[in-house]
Amino acid sequence: MSSNVTRHGVGPRMSEASVFQGVIRLAGMVPENTEGQGIEAQTRDVLDQIDRHLATCGSDKSRLLRVQIFLADLADFPGMNGVWEQWVVQGQTPPRATVQALLAKPEWRLEMVVDAAQA
Asked: How far apart are the first and last CA of the chain?
C-alpha cells in the first residue's frame, strides 16, 4: 500500500475526498438541491453523492467504516433513518453517530461525514 495521500475534487478550500493507506475520508456531504426538499429527499441527495464519491475512490457503501450525521433538527431523525435503512447494506451497517448541529446554511437539513475502506 502506498503511503501517499491522494485527493479527489480538490478545491481552493477543501477536497471532496482523500485516500491514505486504503482509507477513504469524505468531506461533509450536504444536499446539492434544497429548494422545497424535505429530509427524505435531502437524505437521498447526500447518499447519492456518497455513492458517487466512494466509487471514484474505488469503494462502495458495503465498505463503510464510520458515518457521522449532523441534523439541523432532531425531529428529522425518523425521516432520515427511513431513507438510510433502505440505502445501507444490511449486515454491513457501520458504526454511526447522529447529533443535532447548527449547519452552515439554513436550507441544509443534514450533513454526513464518511470514512470507508478501499476495495
From this structure: 12
What is the pTM assigned to this prediction?
A: 0.95
CA distance 100 to 76: 10
Alpha-carbon distance of 102 to 70, in angstroms, equals: 8
Sheet containing strand 64-71, edge to edge, reads 6-10, 15-20, 23-26, 110-117, 64-71, 96-100
CATH class held by domain 6-117? alpha beta
* pLDDT single digits (tens) 16-71: 999 999 999 999 999 999 998 999 999 999 999 999 999 999 999 999 999 999 99
- How far apart (Å, rounded) are the C-alpha atoms in residues 91 and 118? 18
What whole-number distance in Å separates Cα of residue 108 and Cα of residue 103? 7
